[in-house]
Each structure stands twice: as C-alpha cells, then as structure tokens.
C-alpha cells in the first residue's frame, strides 16, 4: 500500500486516460471538452507530484521504481511542459482539423510512459515506459492522416524507432546475460569486471537512447518527423521525449555503469561533438522553420550530452539546467510559430517571416529574444545554459570538447541570425492575424519573460537542481 | 549603505529604454521619445561627471565598489572604478547623448526602436568598463553585439546585412575562446573576481595560453591587423550614430581589456608576447595608413585610420611603461572624440548629398564655411597636431616606445607622417578645390543642432590638447599601481638584461 501512495500521480493519470476514453466515446462531439479535461488532469497530476514529500528517496516494487529528487524534478518539468504544450496548441488542433478525442488521450498515454521511464530503475520497467511513450508518439506523428507528409513522418518514425528499440532490447538482453539481473543497482554490483558482451550491451542501449534524443548519427528521423507532423505534435516531440530520454541517460550511465565510465565516456563525447557540429552546419541551408528547429535541437542535445560526458555530478546538474532552459526556449519558439496564422492557415517557412517586425513588433521582439537565446548570446538564458555546461566540461579538463562546442555556437549563431535578418531587415509581407487565444499568449509571454529575466536571478534554478541527488 | 552610483549608471539607460518601449508616443515623429532618450543620456552624463568629481584620484584601490551575490557560490556581481575605467565611462556617457541628438537627421524610420537600441547599448558599454568580475565583464562585452547588430542591420546602408553578419560573427568567434579562458581561470584560481585575481596572480605556466585566448577576443575587437577587416565594412554600412558609437566606444573595450586583463592578469605572458604585439601594431600603423590613402569612400578612409590609431594604442600598452600606457589611454579617449567627430562630419555631408565618395565633393569651403572650420579641427586632431588631444596621446606612446625599442618607435613615427598625409589629402579633396558638381552647390551649411554637436566635440579636443592634466591626473596613480603591482618594470629590466 505504501508503494501505491508514492505513485499516485501515475495512477491518477492512468485512471484519467481510461475515464476520458470512455467519456469521449459515449459523449458526442466532446473532443474540445476532453482536451480541456486533459489539461486539467495534467494540472492535477502536477499538484499531486508537488504534494509528495520532496525529501523522499525510495525504491518501490522490488527496487525497480525510483521515487527520488531526480524523478521528482524531471516529472515536474515534464508535466509543466505538457501543460504549456496543451495550452499553446489548443487553437492549432482545431484549425488543422485534428481535434479528435484520441489526440489528448494519446498525449496523456505518452506522458505516462515518460513518467515511468523517468522513475525506472530496472531495464524491463524502463523498456515498458519507453514503448508506451513511443507507440503513442507514432500515432500522434501521423495524426493528420489526410496529409501526406504527416503520414510519411509517422511511418518513418515508426520504422526507425522500432529498429532502435530492437537494438535497445538486444542491449538489455546482453546486459542481462552478463550480469544476471535487470535491476540497475544490482547490475552495478554484478559487473565489477569489464566483459566484451557487457560493453556491447552498453553500446546498444546508448544507440537506442541516442536515437530517442536524436543525437548524431542517429538523428535521421528528426528533421522529417518534425516537419511532417502537425506543429502541435512537433512541439511535443521537441520537448517532452527529450526530458525522459535524458533522465534515462543519467540513470543508466550514473547508476549501473558509473564504474565503467571509461567505457562509455568516449561514446558520449563523440555523440556530443557530432551532434553539436552537425546540427549547427546542417541547419544553415534549411527553409522550413520546423525543420530548422529539428537541426537546432539536435545541436542542443549535443550540449546536454557534453555535460553528461564529464561523469561528474556537476556535469549532470549542468545538463539538467541545460534541458530546463532548452525547454523554455523551444516553447517560446513554437508559441511564436503558432502565431503565424492568416486565414486559418499556418505558415512555417522562414521566408514567411519576412519583415515581420514592421507589422508585429511584439511578436518579432519575442522571436528576437528567443533566437539570440538559442544562439547562446548573453545576457539571455541560453547563454547561462551553455555557460554551466562549459564550466563543468572545463573542470574536467576536456578543453577539446569545450572549444569545439563553442565554435559550433558560432556556426549556429549564423542561422539564428539569418532568421533575425529576415524578420528585421527584409521588406514586409502581408499581415498575420493578431488575435490569439489566451493560453498561447500566456505561454509566449511567460517563456519570453523567463528567457529575458533569467540573468537577474540565475541562482534560483541552479539551487534547486543542485539539490538533486544522482546516486 | 552608500548610493549604488555605478549600478545606477548601468541601469538608467535600460530604464529609459523600457520607458520608451512601453509608453506610446503621441505623434508619429516620436518627439517625446527623443526627449526622453536625451534626458536619460544627459542625466547619465551628469551622474558620471559627478562620479569623476568625487572620485579620489590619489587612491590606488577601486572605488565605489558594489558586490552582490549573483550565481550562488560562483560569480558575484561586482562593479567598481579606478582612474582608468572612469575615463571610459565618462567618454561613453558623453558620446551617447551626442548620438541621440544626431538621430533627427540620420534616422528616417523606426526611430523609437533605434533609441531603445542605443540606450540598451549604453548600458552594456558602461557595464564593460566598470565590471570587476570576469564573467560579468564577458556578459556585458558580448551582450553589446545584439544592439549593434540590429543598428547596423536595420538602419544601415546597402550592404548592411553582409556587414552586420560579418561584425557579429567575427566578434563572436573571437570571444568564445575568452570564455574558455575565463572558466579555466576559475578552475585554476577558484575565483573570477578581478581584484582577488590581482592579488593572487596566475601561475606563469598557464599564462601564455590564457593570454592568447583573451588576445583572440581583444585583437578582433580592437581591431588589430589581420582581423581588422570587419571594421571598414561595419563602419561604412552603419548609420552615423552607429559608426560613432562603434568608433568612439566599442573599439575602446578591447584596449581597456588589454590594460585591465592582459597586462593585469598575465604580466609574464604579456612580456613574452611583446614582439608579436609590436609586429602586429606596426603593420597596422603602416599598412592600414597606406590602405587609407587609397580609399575612395570617406567612411572607409576614417575606418582604416581608426585601425592605424588603435595600432598606436596597442603599441603603447605593450611598451609597459608609464608613458606608453598613459599615452594609450589618452590616445583612446582622444580617438574616441576625434573619430566620433569625423563620422559626424561625414554624416553631415552624407545627409545632404547621399554619397560618401570623396570625388563627388570638392570646394565645400565656399558654401559651407562653418563646416570647413570644424572639419579642420578634427582633421588636425586626427593627425595629431600639437594643441589637439591627438598629439598628447601619440607623443606619449612614442616616448614610451623610444624607451624600449628605438627601431619600433621609429617605424611607428613614420605612421604619424602617413596619418598626416591621408587626413590632409582627404581634407583637401573635400573642402578645397573647385566647386564643379551642381548638387554640391545646393548644399547648405551646418544646421543648429549640427553646430551644437560638433562644437561639443571641438571643445574637449582642443582643451585636452592644451591642458591634458585632468585626464593624466586621473589615470596616473592607477597606471603606476598597475606597473608596480605586476613588477612590469622589473620584468622588463630582467628581459633586457638577458
């Protein structure tokens, strides 16, 4: 019973999924209502998580499910992002005619899967969570089924993701074979010696995880899926799965295989450098904003991995800070995308932004702030995110990684500047609609304000994150 | 607690910018925004003037120091001034209102945004000159890129996009290595507090690499010879006010950085790299002077002359003598005034004829006599005629250089002659000669606000030319302390003895 008390948020979301499913089927034309109820239940779940004792540190269900400070923080982050995604995209799904009752329920399923991933302390539990979130995401990606691109992206994501899940599962079985257990803590105890099979297992699992956060060279799906999916799903892709996958990365590397750091460190450094550089270079030629942000997020994941590659608590904390700020920046960016609407049609090409600053000074200003922040220019939040990463990296004397990362920011600055150039320096085009729903406006204002004002009190988030216990 | 005067200096322009941003201007001309901006920048100027007056010039310590916890347990927000930085703050707050006055004529669209950009830029510039923490310094140093990028890109000339990108990416590329160095310093010494670092010193074995990382940033910003190419582009395309701020203040950040950080934190490395800096400075002085001689475009000519003048500055700093460093600081202040004035002068004729090509002008003396007079003063100031502030700076720098290396000093002196050549030739081609061009005949002489702004610059140039004491007085103790503290003299003697 005590175990159940600690997973009340997960239980609550599961019950809400079943309830909303039945409710939606029996009540006609209830898609909007279900959508709103989903948002409400996310808020309730958030309240439930915050309500749990913050100091608690326990492993449930035969030591396979962790409720600790890391899980707590990441879940709060996850559900908060979920709420903001729901708030900002409600109008979009109505206009793009994908407002069906399944949509919010699938989102809830996926969030539940991510929560399980975040808390997992066992290979099987972790895989279960992963599949729950992935299956929901396949459907979501192809949700706009009349659209060729959307269908294609769903299929593409499904095929590639299934392949990576296969690799991951093979890695799990190898690790089970060599350590005789699936429990993370137990693996650590049983794997004092390095064996080839074990190393292969680690590599396979890292490949699977790298796929989920779209790190180079396992990024191929991301641009197509980001572009093809409905924007409301793209923003979901850009934010939430990253939180879950990063948490699993942290748990996986820092609990069972912490001792084998020299086995995985080079892999993570390679993934990190490849992602930072490739993401920055490949984004230069893009014309579609969603595709561009896909490459941009590949690059950003590279920085988050750079923090992980240090193998220190400080590095992990810098990664968590990075992902937090990354979430806010992307949320602000997508809120701006949702505002590029004219006559019930959404625009997502970079050229559509031409001269935006003349007709929409406030929207352009938000985009300016977000883009400079993504480029990592001080005094905006994006700079601090990178700053913490480099502080951790340089502390470990990994100068090469730091210098490559910083040079990649200069390359990346180029394509962010190009968007700013189009917004501010180019001749104006037709006006966009200026009326938006409250949730979207609130999301944009809140996230932009966070980015702008972060430098006033940068300790706030760092202090919270520094209390997270990794081991 | 005392009144936080430095933080007020930093914050005031931003508050003004927010005010302009949120308050709707009643008419389309944004008249009220202009007055708000002027009022704020003038208030800032008087505040910094007050700071200069109450500043105790006989004390070596940093004064008006404010410290607040910022990133917990890591970086503190720390600001303070010594005799060197206070002059740069004064220069900043003096030039900014002049820029605000000029917007009347030069900025035709989106005036409000322009004023906001200038005010935000002022915040960052003042922040650079008074921050006493490396991270805070870096923050202000880099943040200045954003408003300057927009100023060049939105209100610039035809090739503004290219220039804005070049400016931004060059400077960013230079600066990233400095960030690595700053973080490394934190891990080596455990602090990024400049005052503590002065006391602790940095182990000589790390100094060379750290020095190079800082150098890469400052060399681009100065700009020194091989990486100077962004400057002519940025200057040519920026609107008048942008060029003025760029030449007068943004370039000085690097010179200030050389003194405060390169000399102050890495004295051994600075000595080690003296030949490098001498070489680059001499190339800058001679080569860019020759390039300036060939220019058809007024702004480009002045931009190249800026590179040459900054060559004197870097040369003076790395003589590591009292005269050389004082001369460099004086030269920077003087160049701040003179180059600002020259760009304003170019702006005056550009507004009338809409071309910067030198051969389109000629014979202006007969139709614009008032203009001819002020332009002459600035030309003479730029070539360093005795009696203008330009002379004092160059003279002190050369004096310091002669003390150290006669060959270097001799070559640098040749630069002075070249400087006279291109400036006087420019003056001759624009002001004298026959009045051939029909459009030129229609040009009117200086308007009232132009007279005000230009004479505001004439006065200090001549005043400090005859009576440099107030400036020298302010920096003397700090420079002496800098040399003392790092044993620059002793190091020098040892090196010469080898």
Concise synopsis of the structure shown:
The complex is a heterodimer of chains A (471) and B (498). Chain A has helices at residues 2-6, 8-26, 31-51, 69-95, 102-119, 123-141, 148-179, 184-190, 196-212, 221-228, 231-254, 261-282, 289-309, 313-338, 356-359, 361-375, 381-395, 399-424, 438-453, 459-466, and strands at 58-60, 65-67, 341-342, 345-346. Chain A is mostly helical and 471 residues long.
Primary descriptors:
heterodimer, A: 471 residues, mainly alpha, two-stranded antiparallel ribbon, two-stranded antiparallel sheet, 4 strands, globular, B: 498 residues, 77% helix
Beta-strand residue percentage of chain B: under 5%
Give the overall shape of chain A. Answer: globular
How would you characterize the largest beta sheet of chain B? 2 strands, antiparallel
Q: Write down the secondary-structure element order of chain B.
A: HHEEHHHHHHHHHHHHHHHHHHHHH
| Mean pLDDT rating of chain B | 87
Structural class of chain A, by secondary structure, is mainly alpha
Strand order of the largest sheet of chain A: 1-2
User: Could you list the spans of chain A in which at least 5 consecutive residues all have pLDDT below 50?
Assistant: none
Radius of gyration of chain B: 22 Å
Please give the alpha-carbon distance between the first and last residues of chain B. Answer: 52 Å
Largest sheet of chain A: 2 strands, antiparallel
Strand content of chain A: under 5%
Category by helix and strand content of chain B: mainly alpha
Average pLDDT of chain A works out at 89
Share of helix among residues of chain A? over 70%
**Biggest sheet strand line-up of chain B:** 1-2
Q: What is the rounded distance between the termini of chain A?
A: 26 Å
Total number of helices of chain A:
20
Q: Give the largest chain-chain interface (CB within 8 Å).
A: A-B, 30 and 34 residues
